[in-house]
Amino acid sequence: MKVGLNLSHDNIVVTTEETETKTDNGIIIPDSTDDIIIGVVVAIGDEVKDKNIKIGSIILFKKSSSANFNIFFKKYRLIAYKNIIGCISENFDISRTSVTREV
To answer: Residue 56 sits in which domain range?
Structure first.
């Protein structure tokens, strides 16, 4: 089932993947400990004029600046445009970065 979502103002809706990290001792640490979230844009409000932000864009934002909601059992996050930290470019190569998460 396809759902149309019309947003007002500068709001943006993203999907995120919940991940978990397992320590060497087998303890599972949920993604909820991360402050910065990566999301894929699925809907954009009519007042967002940034040409870099479009459907399918990958963006970074703080977890505390978003609100969770569900539509037909699928999880989404709603954020305001001003809370976007950055947009990952299409030619971004994660294998060439030194970003790691230590447990």
So the answer is: 11-20+27-89
What is the DSSP code (8-state) at residue 45? -
The radius of gyration of the chain from alpha carbons, rounded to an integer in Å, stands at 15
CB of 38 closer than 8 Å to CB of 65: no
Contact partners, residue 86, CB within 8 Å, separation at least 6 = 59, 60
Residue 95 resides in a domain: no
Give the pairing of strands 11-15 and 74-80.
antiparallel
Span 25-48, pLDDT tens digits = 777 666 655 688 889 999 999 999
79-91 confidence digits (pLDDT tens): 999 999 999 877 6
